[in-house]
Design a protein that fits this description.
Blueprint lengths: L6 H8 L2 H4 L13 H11 L3 E6 L2 E7 H9 L7 H4 L1 E2 L3 E3 L4 H10 L4 E5 L5 E6 H20 L19 E8 L8 H13 L3 H21 L3 E8 L3 E8 L7 H4 L9 H5 L7 H8 L2 E6 L5 E8 H20 L1
Parallel strand pairs: 4-5
Antiparallel strand pairs: 1-2, 2-3, 5-6, 7-8, 8-9, 9-11, 10-11
Helix pairs in contact: 1-6, 1-9, 8-9, 9-12
């Protein structure tokens, strides 16, 4: 059975970098003496700053770099000597989960945030993400209280031998600007239909990862088709792209065929299919070189309904105590 998805995990896919980042960033020049960098950090109470030469982002200086400088008794050296070059960047409109993937797979403490033209917009740290989560959770609290319906109520007023709702989305290859739009629309539709928050979280994450695979790895894009019935959801994603040479290897956490250009954009960490498996009850991946890829996912709605009912009873019991 698929794992439960927490509110915090859901927010990682829902929040954008621009919503949690620090915008008022103090940039320094490569020629600035480390003595002045130390003073800047002290006065501004910061622990890191991007190094910018004109409009070119060339590095980042952190407290660790300052410590190395002090230990070397090299306080008058330029920032370029101790900065970390080629810093990892994320885009303003990237979901926070892409920043988190960088934090998990690297040892960096901050990422540089840029606009579509790669101009400096700010920085994002784990602390920024935590504060962003807290603000978002406060906003969602009242909204979720109004959505405490059961998945079995989706089609309660409709009488037929078999009732289903079909949602269909065309995804374009390389369209990072709209990447994640389909998953957000599907999740919003489910909540409006009365689905439980847990169902919406699981579907939102699974579809997002599948959607980004279409954006990143296909030639022309593909189609996402979601069929919702009273007791289950079937999600199918298919494309006519290059296909997958080794399906079993593609299912290995961290394995990715993303190009260096895609990785520079902040995508292609190789966790997409792993995250999908966590969120769905059944997953089938069919692909071969030159024949495209077909991904089938199934979510049993009754299990989520029973789980939410159990959680509500536990909460009520705790309140009575």
């Amino acid at each position: 059975m698929a794992e439960s998805i927490t509110k915090v995990e859901e927010l990682a896919y829902e929040l954008r970098v621009s919503e949690v980042m620090t915008r008022d960033t103090k940039a320094i020049s490569p020629q600035l003496p480390m003595r002045d960098v130390v003073e800047l950090f002290r006065l501004e109470r910061i622990s890191g700053a991007p190094v910018v030469d004109g409009e070119q982002i060339c590095g980042v200086v952190s407290m660790e770099d300052i410590i190395r400088c002090l230990l070397a008794n090299d306080i008058d050296a330029p920032a370029s000597k101790y900065m970390t070059p080629n810093p990892i960047t994320v885009k303003l409109n990237d979901p926070v989960v892409e920043a988190l993937k960088h934090f998990v797979t690297t040892s960096v403490g901050r990422l540089i945030v840029v606009d579509p033209q790669n101009h400096l917009q700010g920085i994002i740290t784990k602390g920024d993400i935590t504060r962003g989560y807290l603000r978002a959770l406060q906003r969602q609290n009242e909204e979720e209280e109004l959505r405490r319906y059961r998945a079995r109520h989706l089609f309660e007023d409709i009488e037929s031998d078999r009732t289903s709702l079909i949602l269909r989305y065309n995804i374009l290859a390389g369209d990072f600007r709209h990447g994640g739009a389909a998953s957000s629309n599907i999740k919003r539709a489910l909540l409006r239909l009365g689905a439980t928050p847990q169902i919406a979280r699981r579907v939102g994450i699974a579809v997002y990862e599948a959607e980004m695979n279409l954006v990143i790895h296909t030639t022309h894009g593909g189609i996402i088709r979601v069929e919702i019935e009273p007791h289950r959801m079937d999600i199918r994603v298919f494309d006519d792209g290059p296909g997958i040479e080794d399906v079993q290897k593609a299912l290995t956490p961290g394995y990715s065929t993303a190009t260096e250009q895609i990785r520079e954009l902040g995508f292609g960490a190789g966790m997409g299919l792993t995250n999908i498996q966590r969120c769905v009850d059944e997953m089938t991946l069919e692909s071969s070189p030159g024949n495209g890829t077909r991904l089938k996912m199934k979510i049993n709605l009754d299990q989520d309904t029973m789980q939410e009912k159990k959680e509500n009873l536990q909460n009520e019991s705790a309140e009575d105590d």
